Amino acid sequence: MLRIPIVQRSAAPAPRTARTQPPPRDRPRHDPSGHQSSSVENPSVQPTDPRHRQVRSFVLREGRLTPGQERAFAELWPRFGVDWQAPAPLDLGALFGNDQPVTLEIGFGNGESLARMAADDPGRNWLGVEVHRPGVGHLLLEIERLGIDNLRVMRQDAVELLTHGIAPGALDRVQLFFPDPWPKKRHHKRRILNPGMIALLERAIRPGGHFHAATDWEPYAEQMLETLEAATGFANTAGAGHYTPRPESRPLTKFEQRGERLGHVVHDLVFRRC
Ligand SMILES: C[S@@+](CC[C@H](N)C(=O)[O-])C[C@H]1O[C@@H](n2cnc3c(N)ncnc32)[C@H](O)[C@@H]1O
C-alpha cells in the first residue's frame, strides 16, 4: 500500500519584529487623532491573545523611525529610557537619583511640550509614558537637544503602568494632554479617562497633588468634568462645573495646534487630590 507521509507544520509562529505588520484585526479602522502609533518589541504593548483582549485607548500601528530616532534608541534609551516589566513597582527615587516631586505625563505624543516643561522646571522630576515608538524616539532627541537630566521616558501602556508600576501616592502630578477623543459612540469605551482610570489616578497621586487634563474635543471635556467631579478623591480647583484657564506653564502641544487650526476650543481641567 502506498503510504503518503503527513507533513507536520510547525506550531511556532514567526517571531514578531518591529517591522512586522500586525494581523488585520489589530489594524486601526479609524484614528481620529491622525496619529500613527506602532507595534514594537516591548511586550507590554504587544497585542494580547484575542480571547483575553481588553479595550485599549490606542491602536498599535507600524511607525518608521527616522535615522535620528534609531540613533536615539541606541544611544539615549540606555540613559533616559525605563525598561519596566509588570508587576514590579518602580523605585522613582532610584530612577532619578533624588526625591524631587514627580510629574507623570500620559501619552506625550512627540514629547516636545513635555521636554519644554521639564527644562523650565528642573526642581521637579518628569516621567513620560507613550506607546508610539517614533514619539519616544523624538522625545529622546529633545532631551539630548535641551541637555536635561530630570526626564525619563517609558514605552508602555499607561494603564498597565498605573495599575502595577506606581506605588500609592508616589506621584505629585499627572498630566494628560489631548488624549485621543474617540468621537464615535461605539468607540467611547476606548477613551482613556474613564472611572477606572480615575481610580488609578486616585491611588497614584499623593493627597494635595494634582491631575491636569486638556482636550479640544468638547464632548470629551464635558465627560471629563462630569466623571472627575463624581470622584470623591478629587476636587475641582476651578470650582464645581468650571474649566481652568489655560496655565502659562503648559506649552502648546502638537495636537493642540492641530485642534486650533480646526477651530476647536481647548478646555483645561485641574483637579486636586483630596
Ligand atoms: C492625540 S495624541 C496627543 C499627543 C500629545 N499629548 C499632544 O497633545 O500632542 C494621544 C497620544 O496618547 C497616546 N496614548 C494613547 N493611549 C495610551 C496609553 N494607554 N498609554 C500611553 N500612551 C497612550 C497615543 O499614542 C498618542 O500619542
From TrEMBL:
A Pfam family matched in the record: Methyltransf_4
Residues given in the record as substrate binding sites: 184, 216, 253-256
Pathways per UniProt: tRNA modification; N(7)-methylguanine-tRNA biosynthesis
Broad EC category: transferase
Residue ranges, compositional bias (Low complexity): 8-20
Ribonucleoprotein recorded as keyword: no
PROSITE patterns (UniProt xref): SAM_MT_TRMB (PS51625)
Biased composition (Polar residues): 34-47
Keywords: Methyltransferase, S-adenosyl-L-methionine, Transferase, tRNA processing
Region Disordered, residue ranges: 1-54
EC number of this enzyme: 2.1.1.33
The reaction(s) this protein catalyses: guanosine(46) in tRNA + S-adenosyl-L-methionine = N(7)-methylguanosine(46) in tRNA + S-adenosyl-L-homocysteine
Any GO molecular function: tRNA (guanine(46)-N7)-methyltransferase activity
Basic and acidic residues bias spans: 24-33
UniProt: S-adenosyl-L-methionine binding residues: 105, 130, 157, 180
Function: Catalyzes the formation of N(7)-methylguanine at position 46 (m7G46) in tRNA.
Record-stated family: Belongs to the class I-like SAM-binding methyltransferase superfamily. TrmB family.
UniProt protein name: tRNA (guanine-N(7)-)-methyltransferase
Native source species: Marichromatium bheemlicum
